[in-house]
Amino acid sequence: MDYLRTLGSAAVSSLVQKSGLTLPFSLGAKVTALDGVWTLYDATKRDDGSPVSVFEYDCSSRRAMLPIAKNALRKLRTTRHPRCSQRVRPLQTTLQTWASRGAQEREDYLLWGLHRVSVALAFLNDSCASTHGNIRVNSIFISPSGEWKLGGFDLLSNPKEESAVLYTLGGQLPDAHACSSPEIKKGGWSCLKDNDPAAADSYALGLLLHAVFNPSHPLPATAAPPHPPPPASSRGSIPNSIFPSFKKLLNPNPKGRLTAKGFLAIGMADTGFFANNRLVKVCGGLDNFALSSEAEKNVLLRSLAESADTFPPEFTSFRVLPSLVAALEFGGASAATILPLVLRFGKNVSPEDYPKVILAPLVKLFASPDRGTRMALLDHLPEYAEKLDKKTVDSKIWPHLQTGFSDTVAIIREATVRSIILISPLLSDRILNNDLLRFLAKMQSDPEPSIRTNTCILIGRLGPSLGYNTKRKVLVPAFSRALKDSFVHARVAGLMALMATIECFEVEELATKVIPNMSFSLVDKEKLVRDQAFKAVDLFVKRLESHVASMPETAAPEASESLGITSPAQATLVNSAAGAAGVLAGWAMTSLGKTLAPKDMQSNLTAASAIDRPTSAPGPVGGSSASIDMFQPMDAAGIKSGVSTPTHSKAKAMQLGAHKVPASVAAAAMVEQLAEEAAAAEGDGNPWGNDDLIDVNADDDDWSAFETGQPSVTSNGTDESQVIPSDAPWNSIQTDNAVWGISSRPEPSKRGISSPGIPTPIASPPPPEETGGWDNVGAWEESSAKRPSVVPSTQPAVVLTKEEKAAEMARRKEERKQRIAQMKEQKKAKQ
Predict the structure, then answer these.
(1) CB of 82 within 8 A of CB of 286?
(2) Which residue stretches belong to region Disordered (predicted)?
């Protein structure tokens, strides 16, 4: 059969091409032949690709029916009614399908169809004052929504027309006599000019009613003379409520016959068979939806929601759904109720038609400024987000959706934030890594805590889809901001987001960025946050442990071995503070207990001018020689010597001071050192900016060293301020002046005055002796009993004036110069 259909359509297309005509459609397969006049084809419009039906008439083989075909074409062009001129499939094939449906469902559907035909017929008879003349099953067609459409305008005529074909050619159609009214059978088709235009069509409507309810029954007895009224036994499946009107439609007397308009009025009464039909009520409510009040709209929408599953699929997809989508364009309070129904009915739409039937209207609604419509679109986004494409989201949805981030109503802002995750896979990289993140950064400062919390959750869910550089710049700052939020659940969301995006961080970033930025949550005031923080830290530490297990023990093994550094694997790990202190002490002893090389056993301790240092070692503090000079001992002259101080030790090779230096050499070294210092002082000056380390003009400086009383002198001539008490805790490590090579002259910081306001002149100390120094090894073992005790000075402190301070500084400089000159003269005398 399909082959014959294709062959027929190909033949028609070939004929059209030979005629030179350009038709606005592409002819498809053949459907069926109708009444021996028309052949029905499926076709497709060339401009938009929508499916259409094409009626074809072959003039060469059916020339006798040519006037009827021309009349049908002319009437189709001039007659415009929503219940006419539309067709997709003949009613005959649909009735066979509905025969297996339930009794009530089938009855509702048939009554709805008869209502549609009655409306169209009333329009033709009253408004057009015409007679259809061909009301039968083959003249009814079914649209994609299952709605009945009246066709078969072959004999449609007006009595006032000169070229009316009904009155002369009405009997040319197949089975025309069997379906004609009693007056036609008696007086012919021409008698219709004298009767009401609706009389013949009303009788045919009664026969159509019997045919659709009882398709397997023959015509009623009233169709043949003497046309008796139909008995109740012939009712068949015709409902009781409609059977009285059915008998009136078949009245043999045309003047007393019920017209289509009257039949429609009886059915649409308050208790009529049409008014109580649910399909009729739904269609009536949808047709007048824009003009209905809010209460009427709510009633209709409620009935749709309650009985949505009982409607025929084609009825909901192609009749209810387009009307609801059209109603959505008006917005208003009912939009939130309409949209769920649109998506519910849209489930029956085929995948091929879904973008056009459902998505296209919904996408347009995003441009609506109505908040109710926007809220409904966002709430039900999960139901249609998967069917959207990337181009539609980028160009048609996102430009309008982003306005929700700045809306003054908090619920719109929150719904916008929650909807992003559904369309994020369809957003371009520019929007995802730039525009969207700017809005989310603003949302983290929203006054509503729930919006801040949901924003943090959204960033955590978007983390894996962000670009590499964007992850490193955005995630840690965003989650750290959430951890500082005043809302408890926002802080918890920040911790959970860090845990969820652990794969987004490099292992080094976990240790250097993530853990440091969230560790303060471990002591959060809320237990809920603290517990989550410890779980997060545990997760990060486990990841770090698994990573460092594969790392080498040291980054520079060759250098470590050459320096004799203990391998990290051999180090002792501790679990307490006391244990850590003990291990640190053990490491120090191990480091200091190294054995010197044989060539270094007998060498002197000297300061190296330059020490080769690895690049990783920290630089020396205070200059290249500061750390060396502080450990070099000083002889009796007060100079730094390269000679080691002898100590009692069992290891003779490790004794310090084994090599002694003559006093003359030490004195010569001291002269050179003092000369260099004097030259540096005279040449370069003080590197801190002036010649004096203390500004004599600064009254607020700490001058306590110069504001103490004159120290008392003990019986043996020793300055009491320089004497260490015998019971002092540091007495075991303190030595006297002879041991440290310091003269008996009081230090400048211990200098005092004899009377308030009058500086006491201090005599220059005698030159140091050449003997003494570090030769007396027993000086390290002098008992504390021989050391004098300190007697605290009881003289009151006196404040020096600026002039006195300046005089004291000048005196000290002069003493230094004199001492240097004296040392130089002694050196020349010895030479």
Answers:
(1) no
(2) 701-831
Tokens representing 104 are 């009530």
Question: Residue 764's pLDDT is what?
Answer: 37
Long-range contacts, stretch 69-76, CB < 8 angstroms, 24+ apart: 69/37, 69/38, 69/154, 71/153, 71/154, 71/155, 71/156, 71/157, 71/163, 71/165, 72/37, 72/38, 72/152, 72/153, 72/154, 72/156, 75/153, 75/156, 76/153
The pTM score is 0.58
pLDDT in tens, 649-670: 443 443 444 444 555 555 555 6
Distance separating the N- and C-terminal Cα atoms of the chain = 139
Structure tokens that stand for 155 in this block: 């004999």
User: How many helical (H) and strand (E) elements, i.e. helices and strands, does the chain have?
Assistant: 34, 8
Task: Work out the number of other CB atoms within 10 angstroms of the CB of residue 127.
Answer: 10
Calculate ∠ Cα 544-549-552, nearest 5°: 115
The pLDDT assigned to 41 comes to 85
Interatomic CA distance for residues 17 and 617, integer angstroms: 94
DSSP state of 123: I
- The 3-state DSSP class for residue 735 equals coil
Rounded distance between C-alpha atoms, residue 452 and residue 12, angstroms: 68
- Tokens representing 638 are 């007060």
Q: How far apart are CA 181 and CA 213, in angstroms?
A: 20
Which segments of the chain have a pLDDT < 70?
1-21, 35-36, 80-88, 330-333, 556-799, 831
